[in-house]
Every structure is written in structure tokens, then in C-alpha cells.
Fold:
Amino acid sequence: MNAVVQLAILETKMFFRDRLSVFWTFLFPVVMIWLFGSMFVGSEMNGLTFAEQFVPSWIGVNIVTTSFFTLGTVLAGYRETGVLRRYQSTPLQPWKILAAHTVQGTVIFFFSAVLLMVFGMWMYSLSLPEYIGSTLLALVISILAFFPFALFLTSLAKNTQAAAAISSLFLNVMLFLSGATFPIAFMPEALQLVAKLLPLYYVINLLRGTWNEAPISSYGFEVGILLGISIVSILLASRFFRWNGK
Amino acid sequence: MEHVIIVKGVSKKYGSVFAVKDLSFAVKKGEIFGIIGPNGAGKTTTLEMLEGVLKPNSGTIDVLGYVPTKQLRALNKRIGVQFQSTSIQKKMKVKEALQLFASFYDGPSQKDHLIELLGLQEKLNVHFEDLSGGWKQRVTLALATIHQPEILFLDEPSMGLDPHARREMWSLIERLRKQGCTIVITTHYMEEAEKLCDRVAMIYHGELKALNTPQQLLRGNVSKNITFESHQLKCEDIEPIPGVIRVEENHGLFHVFCKNQQETAYHIFRICHEREISLSNFNFEKGTLDDLFVHYLEEEVVQ
Structure:
């Protein structure tokens, strides 16, 4: 257990030593909210204000960026440069590595989510989530679904570039098709169907819903889907853990 | 003497090419065992099979009583590994790396002892990426030995080091051995094998060509040689001397390979005396593992 704690603390420290990743993780989403805000503020959709719509969904997007970039691509880099290969010759088991990175990702995500929420409250008079316990639970479920999902997908990549390509593809597709940036209702029916195949769609429904409308118990379907993704991904990520890129 | 590693008839294929072919040897407890050979000879493949990272296609390996690929975690608690080209996280400080690796093992760590032994004190707060090659090697050596392993595997530990740093690395390895550690080391520096290793296995094209102490290897196989300077003597004068194998001449600098140094020297002096030719810088050269290395390579070419 000591190893997991040590590794999680160290990886978190090292994340903050890299200025570029700090910018993309913390400031980029705020800038995006601010840009969308300058376009949409004042116009209501489905009875929700701009911030009530966009802040929860960008918190959802942040789960995706954290899982693919802070976790997945970084681990792919470790696979390529031999960091994991070095761990392989110690008694450290794969699940401990995955657990440590999951803890690190959760801490970093937590800061970015608080930052977005505070920004929304300050600029666009967003209020705290209506069902705050439900929102927190929804976040935990979303993290448990997305982190292992991304860790498994990026572990299929041969090197960092390939992992970054996989990550960018997933991020962009989900960004535009899952309702985070464009309301699904505006899309043609075929695309609406595609949206429902993307895990981020359910995360956003869950976050927006518990933030504004109803407790998590009304979102059994979304919770079920995400828990399903979570279990399958955890099994795949730990069963097919790869120590090197070969 | 007790053996800590026993390798019997091990082969490893990549596709249809043998990286290692029918290799057998045993390593004694407490010795420094060298695996030498040119690049691509199968040294790293051999080492990785001993570490349990690679699975052999045939043959058996026993390391501390374990089958490495099957009992990897148990084995990893008792061995230490320094890879050729792996790195740790770039932005990790030296002291953080030591602490992290210490947390991977249950027993007591010799972190503080290693900081002193390797002189790491002044670098503790430096990021790994900012260290020079020699310091990086020291840090990875410290990480490999932090749990006082019974066997230490070092893959080309002095690669890329300057001669001074290399000598320091050797004395560090010597000191680790004095703590009771068995050390298996690969290298293609012959000097390293001669100075450091108790026994040397020479591997070419994945096959074991020779296995003995460096002294015995030199006594047995290498032809003796003589060097001197002369601007009047010609190769043709020396070649007919009995026992001379080969003569090389370069701007009056002669290199004579022969079976018996003393006898050949006598004939060279006799010829020079008779013809009143002057000689200078006359030397009996001791054969080196380098010569042996070339000897085996030439043998390969002939075959």
C-alpha cells in the first residue's frame, strides 16, 4: 500500500512540474467556458442558463482529458521510455501502478473541476449543484468508467505519438458529438444515435441532471451503462497490462 | 561452491533466427560473472531470460531456485536489475526515486548507505533528466541495489562513460560484491572484463565460445606478440622465422604475432646483429581479451 501512496504523491508532484500539462488541464477549459460564455450567455436552453448547461458538461469533458492525456498518454510514454519496464523487475504489481495513477488523476481532476465551478459561479452566477451528494457520486462513477477505459485504449498504442493520436480522436469525437459543446437536439438523427454510443454522453446527462434537476436515483440507466463500462475496462486494463511498447 | 544461477541448453528464437542457441553455464555465489561479445551477440537476450522478462523457447533456467518467468515476483524481491537503456521519470528528483524504489520492497532499505557509497548527497534534489550520463548510471545502480539483492544484473553499466567514470563504476561494483552480492554483468569492453570479472563467458552469434577466468582464457588461446621499431627491417625478413604467425608493419612500427616470444625475439636480435640493423622500443606484449575477441571473430569469418 505504501508503494501506491508514494507513487501517487510523486506522480502528482511531477504533473505540477510540467507547465504545459498544467495549462491544458486547468486553464484551457476555463478559457473555453469563457469563449462559449461570450457567445451564448443570456440565451436559455431547455429552461437552463448557459452556465447550468456548460459548466457541468465541461467538468465531464475534463474527466475525458484527464483520463486520456494525464493518465493514458503519460503511461504510454512510460511504456516507451522504459519506466514501466524498470518497474517490471521490482515486486510492484500492475494494479498498484494503475491504482496510483487513478488516484493522481482524481486529485488533478478534482482541482480542475473546482476551478471550473468557481469560475462559473463568479462570472455567470452559477449556483452549487442542486443535489450535491448525487453530483459527487456521479463524478466518482464517471471517473471509474473513464480512467480504466482510457488506460486500456492507450495501452494498445505502440508509442506516445500513437497514444496521443488515439486520445485526440476520442476527445474530439466526444467533444462535438456528446452534447458537451453543441446541443444534441440540433443534430440530425443519425448523429444523435452515434452520440448515444459515446460514454461521455451519459456522463454529461448525469452531471447536468444531478446539478440542475433530479437526484442520481432518477438516472439509473446512465449509472448502469457507466458502471458496465467501468467493470469491463478495469478487467481489460489489468488483464492486458503491458510493460513495454513491443 | 554453491551455484546461484544454472542455465541448461537454453535457446531463444526471434522468428526463425536464433538469438541464443543451446547455452549452458552456471554462476557461483559471490562472483562477478561477465558475459561478453560483440553487439548483437545475444548478451542482453541472455540477461533478460535470467531476469525472467523473456521466456526461452527451450532449455531450463534456475535462478536462486526459481523458474524466472514463472516466479517473477518472488525472484524480483531478491534480485536487482540495471537495464541498458531504460530511464526513470524525467522530472523525478534523485531522492524521490530512491524513496519510491525503497517503498517497493518489504525489507529494510540501504538508501542512506548507498547515498554515501555512491556520493549522491550533492545530487539528491536534481531532476533525473538534468543528470549527466555517469550520474544517471550511479542513480540506476543505486535503485538496483536499494533492497540489498542477492544477485545484481548489470547490462553494460559503463556504456557511454568516460574512462575516469568507468573506473569509478568498477570500484563501486567491487564494493557491492564485498557486501556479498553476486554480480552478472554484460559488456563489450574487454578491459572491463579483464579487470573486473572473476569468470567470463564469451558469446558469439548466441553461442557460448569460451568460459573461464580472464587469466586462463589469455593463457590458453591468444597468440603472444612482440612490438618494436625499425626503419631498415622488412616484413620478409621476419616471416621465415620459425613460430611466427603473422607480421604487421606500419611506418617502421612492427607487430609480430608468434607462438614463443623468447625464441622469436632471439631470432630477431640475431638477424639484426648479423646485418647491423638498429632496433628500438622492443616490447613483449601481453595478449589481451581484445585479441581473443578478434581471434574468434576471424574464426567466424573463416568458417
Notes: The interface with chain A takes residues 51, 53, 73, 76-77, 79, 81, 83, 85-89, 91-92, 96, 99-101, 103-106, 127, 143 of chain B (CB under 8 Å). Chain B has two domains: 3-219, 223-286. Chain B has a mean pLDDT of 87. The radius of gyration of chain B is 23 Å.
